[in-house]
Amino acid sequence: MQHIEEHKDDHDILQKSIIAGLRTFYLSETLCDATIETSGKRFLCHRVVLSSLSSYFQVLFTCPMKESKSGEVSLLDIPASVMEIVLHFMYTGEVDISMDNVEELFTVSSRLQIGLLQEFCTRFLRKYIDGENCLWIYRLAHSHNDQSLLDVAMQYISLHLTGLGEKEDFLYLELPELTRILSSDQLIVSSELTIYNLACRWWEFHSDKGSPLPEELVKVVRFPLMDPCELTEVKIDIPTSNPAQNSAEFCLRQGMFEDRILCMDLSERYETIPEKEDYHINAYDPITDSWEKLPFISPLYQPGLLSVGHILYVAGGQDEDNSVSNLLHVYDSVKNEWKDFPSMAKPRYGHGFLHYRDALYAVGGCDGQEAVGSAECFSLVEKCWTEISSMPSALRSFTSAQLKGRLFLIGGLTGTVKKSSSHQAFLIYDISSDTWSQFPLPVTFSDAGAVVFNEKLYVIASYDSRQGNYDPYPPFDEYQAYLLYYEQPNTIPRSFCMDYLGRICHSKIPPILESVAEAAVVVWRHRIYIVGGSGRDGFCHEKMYYWNPGDPKWTRSSKTIPFSFDGYLGGVTMQIPMKRFHDLIPGRKSSYNFRIEEDYEEQEEPWLQPNHSI
Questions:
Q1: Residue 197 exposed, middle or buried by CB count within 10 Å (0-12, 13-18, 19+)
Q2: 129-164, pLDDT tens digit by residue?
C-alpha cells in the first residue's frame, strides 16, 4: 500500500509538471502548431491541447479539412478578450467567471464543445439564479439545448411564475420558449386560469388588439381543469376536439396538489373486523392541522412504504396469518385507485424500501424467521424486478434513506426473530457501481427514522439518560466526537446528521424528549415531523412534533393522533390533488376516499360511500 501511495504522489507531481510545461510553451509561443484568429488578435496554440478538451477542435485537426493541414482556425466572430480567457482555461484549468462574462463564456464553450468550461458556467448560473435573471438564463439554456441548466431555470420559474409573468422580460420570451414554460407540469399554480391570463398578456404585447390567441398558446391551456366560474372569464372559443385534453392521462400542474403526511399503522391487527373497514392509511394536513383517512387493501406488519409524487408504493409486509408478502401495491391519488404491480422475488418485511430516479429498491428485512441480506430493484419503466448485490450483513428493522444515488441502511438488528442482536454499523449501497460498503457507528439503535433534507441525511432518534443502562454506548469521552448538540446535562442526543459519503456532519439537532422508536419521521416542505412512536414503557405516544432545521428545539403540534395504533407507524409525504379538481379529472374513480376528521372520529358507516371522493 505504501508503494502505491508513493507512486500516486509521483503521478500528481508529473501531472502538475506537464500542465506547467504546456502553459510555459503557450505563453512563450514555443512548439506551437496551431493558430486561432479572432477579431483583433491571433493566438499561437498546440493542437493536442485544444483537441484534448474540445470535440470541435479534435474534428478540425483530425478530419481531412483545410484546418488539419494548415493548423489555422478562423473564429472572427469571437472577441479576442473572450478567446483569451478560454485558452487560459484550457492550458491551466483556471477561469474567473462573473455575471459580466458568463454569457459569452457559456456561448463560446458550447459552440467549441468545451464541456468542462460549459459545466463551470452552468454551475455559476445555478448558484446565482434569481428573479431578475432566471428568464434570461432559461433563454440561454434553451438556445444552447443545455438540459441541466434548463431544468434549474425551469424549477425556479415554476416556483415564481405568477410574479415573473408581471415582469417585462416575460414579454420578450420567444413563442417556443413561452409554450415550453406554459406546458410544464411543474408550474406552481393552483388555477389554470393563471396560465390562460399569462398567455393572453404575452399575446397582447406581440399582436394587434383583439387578435385571437394563436393555436400554439391555445394548446398549452388545460381548459378541462377550469371550473364553470373560471370558464366565464375565457374570451376565446374553447377547443373541444383536443385529444390530449380529453385523455385520462391528463396531468395536473404541480401547484394543484397538496402535500399530506400519510401514516399507516404497520402493526399486526389480530382483532381486525373487515366489516368495520379497519384497513386504512391516515392522512395529516399540517396546514389545517386535521386528519383524514384512506382505506387500504389489507392489514400488514412492517411493509415497505414510499411515495413518488402522487403515487404511493407499498411493498411486502407480514399478513395476519404470519405469512410474509412479496406483493407490491400501488395507489394513484389522481385517479384515486389501487393497483397491484409485479411482486418482489423475495417475501420480506421490516426492510428498506427506497426510490432513486426510475427505480425502487427493496433491501434486507425479515423473511418471518430471520434477517435477510438479499436486495432487488424494480424498474418503473419496464415494470419488473431484478436482483442486485447482496448486503454484507443480513439486516432488519434498520432506518434507511437515499442520498445522491446512495442507499443508507443505519443501525438495525441481525440474527433470527427469536434471537437478535444490534447492528452497530451502517451500510451504504452505491447504485451506479452496485457495491456495498460497511462502516462502524458509535451507538446502536433500531426502528429510528431517517430523512434527507438540504442534501444531508438526518437520523432522528430519541435520547437516553447517561445513568441509564438501556442500550450500549461507548464511553462518553469517545462519543464526544459525535456529539452534535445537547441542552440537558443528563442526556445524550442520539440524533445525528451525515453527508452523502457517510461522514458525520456537525449540524445542530435538538434532543428529542420523547421516544421516537417506531415513529413516522418525514419531511414536509421545510420541516421534519415526528408522528407517534412507542416508549420504553410499552405504550404508544399519540403526539406529533416538528422541527425547522436551525430552530433551537422541536415544537409539539396542538393536536394528538386521533387514531389508535400499536407500535410501528410508517410515514411518507405524498401529493394529493386539491379537492376542487376531483370532479374535473378525467377517469377519476370514486371508490376510494378520504373522510373528514369528524367522520373519522364519530361515524360508523362503511368507508366506501357513493359520490364521496377525495
A1: middle
A2: 999 999 999 999 999 989 989 999 999 999 999 999
